[in-house]
Structures are given as structure tokens and as C-alpha cells.
Specification:
The protein is α+β, with helices and mostly antiparallel strands and about 325 residues long. The protein contains 4 helices and 11 strands. Among the domains are: about 100 residues, Alpha-Beta Plaits; about 90 residues, Alpha-Beta Plaits (2-Layer Sandwich). Helix content is about 15%, strand content about 15%. Strand 7 and strand 8 form a beta hairpin. The chain starts with a strand and ends in a 90-residue tail after the last strand.
Length: about 325
């Protein structure tokens, strides 16, 4: 594995190719198979980490893993204590608030190289240097933060990534990380991974409100935290309907499906029908042969009503 720390010069793309002919990382690092971790703006300078360690690259680039980065920022004007406090607390960038930052007003400018294109100054407006340490990676975040509090950025240099700083690196120079630096970096990522857990965005069929299913275990067939009809509840016995042995299906109004031969409000067998249709029995008599209303009653005369001909239903000998 290779771990490279490069001091990216001003107006260099944080990539290895460019169709328009601008300078890229390839002009300074000719090691195959390595890629930058994150990005640094074209008009910014300072540290960029490159590696062929795909797992570490993914973790360092993922927003949920906090890798602090320190910037030296030259701004136009002299920030007030209120402006510095706003930067520390978080700034509204219209697309969202920034997280809390460590912000310090430097008493004097840091010792830096001359930029390839000098910063344009205005004689009647002083400049100041800030040190800003953040863990977010929003697009052009530092520049937007200082502009939001009224102090535009004139020059921006990334001075450190985690505990790895510029040291003696000049623009375009690079060095390999030491074994200790690699170990500390991987240990920090491992600790953050353990703290974050191995959470994966659940599928819609596995989602539970609050992320915790009933009983603490995932069960099949559940969507949105609700039990779909006909599925088994967590901890239920095999082949047992949900909720116990009784059926939860609503019964039709005015009919008892569990009592064939009787209708709601009818008299006992042998009496006259109350006018309702017996469930599963033929009119005028028991036996439950499955015939429906409208069949010819046993022993009755043509045209007579069920259960009334001949003084009542006749029995077969």
C-alpha cells in the first residue's frame, strides 16, 4: 500500500487528467494506481492525501467519518469577535448550516511560499489570517463561511489533515507517510467505524420506525414496521395464526358462519323459518346437502313456500 502526502500548488486540479490541458496531480506524482482522498479546490493550496488503499480511501471520503482538516485563511478585513463566534457556532449557507468549527484569529501571517499568482490587495483595506479546523467537506465550504460573515477569502491553504501537517513540503513536493502515521490513521478510522456500527440503509421491507423492530429481531414480511395480514408475529409458534387460535376476520352482518343450519333470529329445528336463508342447509329441513335457496322443498307442493307445505317438512323413510 502507498500513502502519499502532496502539497498541491495553486491552480492545479485534484485529479490525474484534464481535457483542457490544465495542470493535474500527474504533473507532480507519477505513481500508478493511487487516487486522491477527497478534493481540494483548483484555486486552493496545501495538503492532499493520495493512496491505493481503497478501504481507507472510502472511509476518509465518507461524510459520517470525521477527519479534521486545518486551513490557514487570508480574509479581507479584520473579523470582529461576533463574526468569529458565528464561524465557530455554524453559518447558514442557504443550503444548510455548517457544523461547529474551531476558529482562531492568528496574530501574524504564517510563513508561506509566494503564490504563483499574487493575491490582489486593496491599499485601504487590511487583511487578516484565520486558522479554521473543520470536519465537514461541503463544496467550497471555508470560502462560503467567511463570505457569509462578511469577510471574503483571498487565499486558502490546507495546513493539516488530521495530525499530518505541511512540515517542510514546498508546492509540488510530496512524501510518503511514516508507518506510525499510517497506523494512527487506520486506528482512528477503525475506532470511528466501531462507534458508528455496521449500519446499512435498510430495504423498504425491513424498515422499522426508530430502527428497532418489536422484540429486537427482524422478521420477514414486515413493511414500514407494520405486520402484513397473514404473516407470523415475532415469537409466535409455527402454523399458528396471528393473535392466537381465534380468527380475526369480521363475520358478515346477520349471519353466523360457524353454525350451519341456523340463521340469525330463527327458531329451533322443526319450527317455521324466520324468513332468513339457512347457512349450508336446504329449505324446510336439516341435512346440510349444500343446496341453495330456490330448490324444491321435500314433500311440498309446487308453488308452496319452503317449510309450510303439508304442515311442515316430511322425513324420508
Amino acid at each position: 500500500m502507498r500513502y502519499i502526502l502532496l502539497n498541491k500548488p495553486y491552480e492545479v486540479l485534484t485529479q490525474f487528467t484534464d481535457e483542457t490541458g490544465r495542470q493535474t496531480l500527474k504533473d507532480f506524482v507519477e505513481i500508478p494506481g493511487i487516487y486522491p482522498v477527497g478534493r481540494l479546490d483548483y484555486d486552493s493550496e496545501g495538503l492532499v492525501l493520495l493512496t491505493d488503499d481503497k478501504q481507507l480511501q472510502h472511509r476518509l471520503s465518507e461524510p459520517r467519518f470525521k477527519v479534521p482538516k486545518t486551513y490557514w485563511v487570508q480574509v479581507e478585513g479584520e473579523p470582529t469577535p461576533e463574526a468569529l463566534e458565528n464561524l465557530r457556532r455554524g453559518v447558514d449557507l442557504k443550503t444548510g448550516y455548517t457544523s461547529a468549527a474551531e476558529v482562531e484569529l492568528l496574530p501574524q501571517a504564517p510563513e508561506l511560499w509566494e503564490r504563483s499568482k499574487p493575491v490582489r490587495f486593496r491599499a485601504n483595506i487590511p487583511t487578516s489570517w484565520l486558522q479554521i479546523r473543520i470536519s465537514q467537506g461541503m463544496n467550497r465550504q471555508v470560502r462560503k463561511m467567511t463570505a457569509a460573515v462578511g469577510y471574503p477569502t483571498l487565499r486558502l491553504v490546507r495546513a493539516a489533515i488530521a495530525d499530518m501537517d505541511l512540515g517542510e513540503l514546498q508546492p509540488g513536493q510530496w512524501r510518503e507517510l511514516t508507518n506510525t502515521e499510517v497506523r494512527l490513521l487506520t486506528e482512528d478510522m477503525a475506532a470511528q467505524t466501531a462507534a458508528a456500527g455496521t449500519f446499512k440503509t435498510p430495504k423498504s421491507s425491513e424498515y422499522w420506525p426508530g430502527g428497532i423492530p418489536p422484540g429486537g429481531k427482524k422478521t420477514g414480511g414486515n413493511r414500514g414496521g407494520f405486520m402484513a395480514p397473514g404473516t407470523k408475529a415475532a415469537g409466535s409458534k409455527p402454523n399458528r395464526p396471528v393473535g392466537g387460535p381465534k380468527s380475526v376476520r369480521p363475520k358478515p352482518a346477520g349471519n353466523r358462519a360457524d353454525a350451519p343450519g341456523k340463521s340469525a333470529g330463527s327458531k329451533p329445528a322443526g319450527g317455521k323459518s324466520a324468513g332468513s336463508r339457512p347457512a349450508g342447509a336446504r329449505p324446510g329441513g336439516g341435512g346440510g346437502n349444500g343446496k341453495t335457496f330456490g330448490t324444491k322443498p321435500t314433500g311440498g307442493k309446487p308453488g308452496s313456500k319452503p317449510g309450510t307445505a303439508g304442515g311442515g317438512p316430511k322425513r324420508r323413510g
